[in-house]
Amino acid sequence: MKTTVTIALLGILTLVLVGCTGMRPGYETPTVTISSFKTIPSEGGLPAFEIGLRVINPNFEPLELRGVAYTISIEGHELIKGVGNDLPVIDGYGEGEFKLTASANLFGGIRLITDLMRNNRSTFQYEFEAKLDIGAFLPAIRVTDSDEISFQPAT
Questions:
Q1: What domains can be seen in the chain, in order of their start residue?
Q2: Separation of alpha carbons 39 and 55, rounded Å
Q3: Virtual CA dihedral for 124, 55, 140, 106, nearest 10 degrees?
Q4: Cα distance between residue 51 and residue 39, in whole Å
Q5: Per-residue pLDDT in tens (0 to 9) along the chain, 155 residues
């Protein structure tokens, strides 16, 4: 009986220690921002985009990105969704840029245009969401950025 209890306690202790290794005290979430955004030639009827992302790693350890999944929405309408897996390693206390390609969501675009026709405004709310995968035993980094953009020419 004592042996079973001892083995069970050792098993629980091992699980707790393994869980603690995934925790990183003092770890700061990297910053991800859009550095460029342009249309590129595409096959088919949907427009394609090249999106440049800049990642700033405020931590000592290098950031080994295994993959990224991201979404760009305007006024709550999901317009662009994409993934990437050919990503650089971002050195500790360093930054890096990479480019991703994505295509537009046709129905999200139609809903946005319909919404814009109903509301005559010059500024629009956008939201960028990204999930960065940094390994099997570490939790994904989730980043959200939102702001307003204007389609009016500057005066």
A1: 26-150 (2.60.40.10)
A2: 21
A3: 40
A4: 9
A5: 666 656 655 566 565 554 544 455 677 888 888 888 887 887 776 777 888 889 999 999 898 889 999 888 888 888 888 889 989 999 999 999 999 888 887 777 777 777 777 877 777 788 889 898 887 667 788 888 888 877 665 55
CA-wise closest residue to 100 among 142, 32, 33, 37: 37
* Listed residue (104, 92, 112) closest to 51, CA to CA: 104
**What span, in angstroms and rounded, lies between the C-alpha atoms of 82 and 100?**
8
Length of the chain: 155
Compute CA distances 102 → 11, 37, 66, whole Å. Answer: 46, 11, 18
Cα–Cα distance measured from residue 103 to residue 21, given in angstroms and rounded to the nearest whole number: 38
DSSP for 106-152, written as a single string: HHHHHHHHHHHHHS--SEEEEEEEEEEE--TTSPPEEEEEEEEEE-S
Structural contact between residues 64 and 73, judged by C-beta atoms closer than 8 angstroms: no
Taking the whole predicted model, whether its pTM rises above 0.85 is answered as no
